[in-house]
Specification:
- The structure is a homodimer of 199-residue chains.
- With 199 residues, chain A is an all-alpha fold.
- Chain A has two domains: 60 residues, Homeodomain-like (Arc Repressor Mutant, subunit A, Orthogonal Bundle), CATH 1.10.10.60; 114 residues, no CATH class.
- Helix content of chain A is 76%, strand content 0%.
- Chain A has nine helices and no strands.
- Chain A is elongated, with a radius of gyration of 20 Å.
- At the A-B interface, helix 6, helix 7, helix 8 and helix 9 of A face helix 6, helix 7, helix 8 and helix 9 of B.
- Chain A binds a DNA duplex (18 and 18 nucleotides) through helix 1 and helix 3.
Chain lengths: 199, 199
DNA sequence: GTCTATACCAAGATAGAC
DNA sequence: GTCTATCTTGGTATAGAC
């Protein structure tokens, strides 16, 4: 009844909820949304099936919370862009941070990808996907403008798709992924885009 | 009882089986394996649920047939490599054909991607995935050697991942995908890889 | 707050009539 | 060969005891 006890409960509740979110993210990422059962999640979180519904209204709301939390995390990053004003430095930071982020948040990217390729599921998070995409593409376009690119939108799009492909491969085979070599190669490949057509 | 009738039956059977394979591919690609029910497939193929099991032992075998058929189709392509011996031409053909193939076999690539990102499902087709990957990477590596690349394996890997990323984006938003512009840009980007280090 | 038991339903698969 | 009816399982979600 005392306030202190109440706070204790709150803390336990929070911890347990986080636990559920963490294991659910992992399972959804690995087995897909439909491929994961509440029972599996409960087991891995070491609670009963029934208790799951004390923390989340249903399976769908659980997925929503996970996805939105992930989006927020990723949108908060500034990809080291504030470190310098030189476009070459910015590009280097962006590449570095994006690839670091990839290995730091593997499960989230895996889930993101699973959802992205399934139109029916994707619809639900469409807005968030576009929002993130817009933010990222715009940032890159500005950098390419700074580098004197003759088609910054296209180069930005291409670097974006390249990140996606790297993510896909990293997800499928996280070992056998020479991350530092890749950073270097990307930097070389994108740092010197074609200038205005030379005659 | 006559042979002719028997042939007719065979033909009808074949046609119907193909119909099932086609609609199942589409549904699996769009909604995932677990996200697609036998009832949905049967409905779209305009047959009863029960009849499905006359054609396929079970849902899993159906998926297997679809995936293996798709792999075979894709492995048969030669990506226009025999047209010329010049590495620059070969690279151009490869880029062209890969992107054409992407839009011609959208559903298959979509399924391929869905399966690739889900480790549990992936295991089953692992060997086939690697087989295709090896073939593709080796082909590209040879081309980059011909172009005088200082690290043909890495450049080949990077072009491969870039294709994957483009596929992912094409799948997610097939409209708003400037395919010809991309072909051109890829060609420019990969055709002149760094030579041996200049001192 | 947490668990067990259970209602309920959707989906895979089979049986049997035609 | 094809369909309808049915069995069976496994999964979501709820009820109710502690």
């Amino acid at each position: 009844m005392s306030p202190r006890t109440k706070q204790q409960f709150e803390k336990i509740r929070k911890t347990r909820k986080d636990k559920i979110l963490t294991v659910a993210l992992e399972l959804f990422a690995q087995n897909g949304y439909q491929g994961t059962s509440i029972a599996q999640i409960a087991k891995k979180a070491k609670i009963s099936k029934g208790l799951m519904y004390n923390y989340f209204k249903n399976k769908e709301k659980l997925l929503e919370e996970i996805v939105l939390e992930g989006f927020n995390k990723i949108m908060e990053l500034d990809y080291g862009l504030s470190k310098s004003d030189k476009p070459t430095d910015k590009l280097k930071s962006l590449i570095d941070e994006t690839l670091n982020n990839l290995s730091n948040n593997l499960h989230y990217w895996q889930l993101y990808t699973v959802l992205l390729v399934q139109p029916r599921v994707q619809k639900k998070f469409e807005k968030k996907f576009y929002q993130f995409r817009e933010f990222f593409i715009t940032t890159m376009t500005e950098i390419f403008k700074g580098l004197g690119s003759n088609n910054p939108e296209l180069h930005s799009f291409l670097l974006g798709t390249h990140f996606d492909g790297l993510a896909l491969n990293f997800i499928a085979t996280p070992d056998d992924f020479p991350i530092e070599e890749i950073k270097q190669a990307l930097y070389e490949q994108y740092c010197k885009p074609k200038r205005k057509k030379k005659k």
